[in-house]
Amino acid sequence: MKYQSLALYCGSSSGNNPVYAREAARFGKMCAQKSLTLYFGGGSIGLMDAAAQACLSKGGKVIGVAPDFFTEGEVLATNLTEMIMVKTMSERKQLLEEKSDAFVIFPGSYGTMDELFEMVTDAQLGMHTKPIVIYNYMGYYDYLLKQMDKFMEEGFLRPFHHSLLLNASDLEELFYKLDTYENTNDRSWLEKIRH
Question: Which residues pair with 43 in a beta bridge?
Fold first, then answer.
């Protein structure tokens, strides 16, 4: 698959283990090396900041999308290629979905899960056909991925929807899955729910 941009969803915290921030920085540098525009939530804190600053340090293009009630300088980055301000968190998610060609999920918590599930639900409903890859570094998302399996095993998630959500345990695998992505949604299923 050809893509020129991606959205990163991740924690506004760095977590307890410094390896997460190091991986976020490595990811940001790889985006710059691959000439990918990096979209993210605009934060100057946590994994968001680690990825953005690393991308910028290698000459990459980084665009933040943030609600205007966040405090500039305290929470928001001030040195990005571009900052797009919106009114609500919902607008932020919609714009990130619209602007990005792919979605990558790093470690995070409530906000990251909100973004992940909105993106994969929209993929399920055929609102986009873009790849979504969970970065399951050091098994961070093992339990979430097992829960997805449980959804399918119990008949609440169709197999072709289960496979819309990819996962990778290292960055090389992550970019490989983006490069080779093929959407698995079932066209006949989409036609049934839309007519």
Answer: 76
